[in-house]
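hey so i finaly got around to running the thing on SWIM zinc finger domain-containing protein from Kineosporia babensis. pasting the sequence first so u can double check i didnt mess up the copy paste, my clipboard has been acting weird all day
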Amino acid sequence: MDSVQTYTYRQPSELTPGGLGLETSGGTALRDPGAHPRFFTGFLQRPAVAAAGLLAVAEVARTRYFQPADTTFRDPVVTSDGERLRFESFSVCGGVHLRLDVLGSGFDGDVIDRGTTNVDVNEPLRRMLSGLLDGQPLHLAVGPDDVTVTTKTDSVVERKVPLPARWVRGFGEIYVLTSEFDARAEIPAAEASRLLRSLPSQRRAAGAFWFAPAGRSLRLVSRPVPGAVCLPGPQRLSAILPLLRFATGLRVYGPGVTSTSQPVASAWELALPGMRLTATLSPDATRGFSGEGAVLDALSGDTVAEDADLVSVLLAFEPRIDLAELAAGSGLTPARVRAALVRLGAAGRVGHDLAEAASFHRELPFDGGLVEQMNPRHGAARALVAAGAVSLEQNRPGEVIGLVSAGDHTHRVRLAGDRRTCTCVWFAKHQGSRGPCKHVLAVEQSAREEV
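ok and heres what it spat out for the 3d tokens, dont ask me to read them lol
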């Protein structure tokens, strides 16, 4: 499902002798929504590094890693939180998320406002950034700025950019998945360069690679072991390779795994002077984050929608969301606040920073009411319950058994602690690795209603 947004830029983004001007579209600022919000103006301390990072984010936004094909360029998302600038994009296939964080030590300037918008990184600007040297001053103005107004003061560029709903779904899935990640390895710059440059470079390297920590590096292993990290589709790290010459280190994140684990998502974070560049990869190069189903459990709570509305009022583009403060301010339990944040994450309004081990606030130009439509299994489960297709054979503490009638079939669902099983084809194929099926969600809803 794609929703088409019309973005109007006062002029194209461009690099002039006076500095870099990144034009914004409509966005949400701390004060209020603005036609062309202006967030920041100042100099970046390491121009060549910043230029390479922006080019990487733009490159991912226009790349389809699975079944490569010509694509339409999509403009990256930028968030200003008062302490840093975050530039984010998804690949066209939806399986790679790249974020450049320009930290406070990486710029010298004024934060005018806090908020989120889309920025225009067009082809002429890409060419100019490619030739930027570190000794040349780079002035960054996120929003209209006098430095860039002097070139084409009256021009207006209008673009209809199809921003897929899968981008928003991807933000939500990444929020849930990365919240469960731990740092698995921290690698010095030289070893990181050797490791990443030794990976297969073909566009469609088959399967997932597993690496186990080995001193201050990673070693390739034939199968998952406790503490290992998964690299599904090594060619999907290609966008970060040009920045290895600037890197001061590499940190790798992933969830806990066992010897029987299937491929899982992972995150690869380059430490740069005054910046961080983080690439997060979906568990399979053939599919994007939007189909992982990680947000479905949080969407199914009886009060989660109302809780999310309440929590959203308290968010103010914090660089680090404090769960305890939100719980105190909203009057909700920490568990309900966490579920509300996942719901907000499913609408693209909350992200997770692995380096900070904390959530942060962003806003996207999407209707939060579309969350239900963007997660069809959740809607299908509600429809099954409403149609009376669910009957509970047993509903006691620790175990629920239910039957779900779907067409000519009746599926048996068993819920026992963290273990959830169903006799449907979806569960047989994925074994819960891509979130619960609609029958499990329907039985869970019925069990809650019966209590």
